[in-house]
Design goal:
Growth Hormone, Chain: A, mainly alpha, transmembrane helix, single chain, 479 residues
Length: 479
């Protein structure tokens, strides 16, 4: 009798000897395959460039400039963000559902980059005409694709890179490009307007959105090439059967019930982390001006964004060592220390914003890659959409609540930092729970080799179930 252990060893009870199984050698991936994947990654970054570079154009000019340009009051200025944000609490989930169940990646990419381009064109025309209702219409159409395009990009990364040794690197690269483009937008928009004009600046962003649409066309073509690649070792009829089975796998709302508890805990963790860190970015300028007026406020608030560009480097480390939850725990502790320092001010705030920047970079590289091992590929867009909707909704409500608290307490930030610290502590506790749970499942906090083996086992079980289901649907006729 032979007993198989969790390692590459087998124990023969009859002979009372330990048998060592030869390790399967990893197939050598040709250079052309790597180049093809990285070409695809380049266009995955380019498809979000337009949206990332134009979303915060109104904020870059500020409420005063925008309200004077359109001859409206400063309260109306907020509508430009409201018509984008609040519909997206639902639209982004609808978009993820449509991608997984109806449109598919290629058509979904073109539809949503198209909405962004059309919306931005209308917004640019409104700037020339100084017509505010047209600006609102443009932002509304822009918003239909503005959040969902990130879901499409993440889904592309998942399909192209999941299972490879550079999965976290690819994910963090796309995330970093989006964040960096947004930071540059805030930095250079007013400078461009000073040299030209407000409408010209918005039209430059419009051309970037059109460029992203063209990049979407190229990426869709590359996806077609990827799907056409044929493994010569597999019979064509067998491939056709597999393709047919895969086509039948479309997301259904009932599939949400099958998502494991770890998936929901990951979403909970991300929300508990995002609320304090990213809402602080929105109030950081006023906080630094109030408590550190002698320092360069704009430099302080931009440091986290630029340090977040370390995400690809950290992504490479995650790819090499795995243990995502440990990386995220360190990240959360850094954010906790940063908020404690900002609350009690024992050291210069530059240390706090550096900690926040490193923490953000770690989140970009190690958090989103946790979702793929837990859910089927045909549900991935919906999963990212659920995460986006929850974080967007949480952020919108949090910013309203923070502003109310500051108004009632005469801009006393103590209560705000207490809330931030409590949320970060909750995120750390959630990570500890996930670490304990994963000791049994060994899927999201293990070295890459173990995770790959576990996912391979799961896929083999799924394929066996698919074959069984096919046989039940098409039983053999015996004479």
């Amino acid at each position: 009798m032979t007993i198989t252990t969790n390692t590459d060893e087998e124990y023969d009870t009859e002979e009372n000897t330990l048998l060592v199984k030869p390790k399967e050698e990893e197939p050598v991936i040709p250079l052309s395959e790597h180049l093809f994947k990285y070409l695809g990654l380049l266009f995955m970054c380019l498809v979000i460039l337009g949206a990332a570079s134009t979303f915060d154009v109104p904020a870059a000019f500020g409420s005063k400039v925008i309200s004077e340009w359109y001859h409206v009051n400063e309260v109306d200025y907020g509508v430009l963000y409201s018509v984008y944000s609040f519909p997206n609490l639902v639209l982004v989930v609808v978009g993820g559902y449509l991608i997984d169940s109806l449109l598919g990646l290629r058509l979904g990419l073109l539809v949503f980059t198209g909405f962004i381009a059309i919306g931005q064109i209308i917004f640019a025309i409104s700037a020339n005409a100084r017509t505010f209702w047209l600006a609102i219409l443009g932002r509304l159409i822009y918003g239909v694709g503005g959040e969902t395009i990130y879901i499409v990009a993440f889904a592309y990364v998942s399909v192209w890179f999941f299972g490879r040794k550079d999965f976290a690197l690819a994910f963090s690269t796309v995330n970093t490009v989006g964040r960096l483009a947004g930071a540059i937008d805030l930095s250079v928009t007013t400078d461009i307007a000073d040299h030209f004009s407000l409408p010209v600046t918005i039209w430059i962003g419009t051309f970037l959105c059109l460029f992203s649409f063209v990049a979407g066309l190229v990426l869709s073509y590359l996806e077609t090439l990827r799907l056409k690649k044929v493994n010569p070792l597999i019979d064509q009829k067998e491939q056709d059967k597999k393709a047919e089975i895969k086509q039948q796998k479309k997301f259904k709302i009932s599939d949400v019930k099958k998502f494991p508890l770890q998936f929901w805990l990951i979403l909970f963790f991300i929300n508990c982390y995002v609320i304090p860190v990213f809402s602080f970015i929105t109030i950081g300028t006023d906080f630094f001006k109030t408590h550190f007026p002698h320092l360069n406020t704009s430099a302080l608030i931009s440091i986290p964004f630029y340090l977040a560009c370390l995400a690809p480097l950290l992504g490479a480390l995650v790819d090499k060592f795995g243990r995502n939850l440990y990386f995220l725990t360190v990240s959360s502790v850094l954010a906790l220390v940063a908020f404690i320092f900002l609350m009690f001010k024992p050291v210069t705030p530059y240390i706090s914003v550096i900690f926040l920047g490193i923490s953000m970079a770690t989140i970009y590289s190690a958090s989103f890659t946790l979702i793929n091992p837990l859910v089927p590929e045909y549900c991935i867009s919906v999963c990212f959409a659920l995460n986006s909707a929850l974080t967007s909704g949480s952020m919108a409500l949090t910013i309203i609540g923070i502003n109310s608290i500051l108004q009632k307490n005469n801009n006393d930030y103590t209560i705000i930092f207490v809330i931030y610290i409590l949320l970060i502590l909750i995120s750390i506790v959630t990570l500890v729970i996930l670490i304990i749970m994963d000791r049994k499942h060994q899927l999201i906090n293990v070295p890459p080799e173990i995770q790959k083996e576990k996912i391979k086992e799961r896929k083999e079980k799924e394929e066996a179930l698919d074959r069984q289901r096919e046989q039940e649907q098409n039983p053999l006729i015996v004479n």
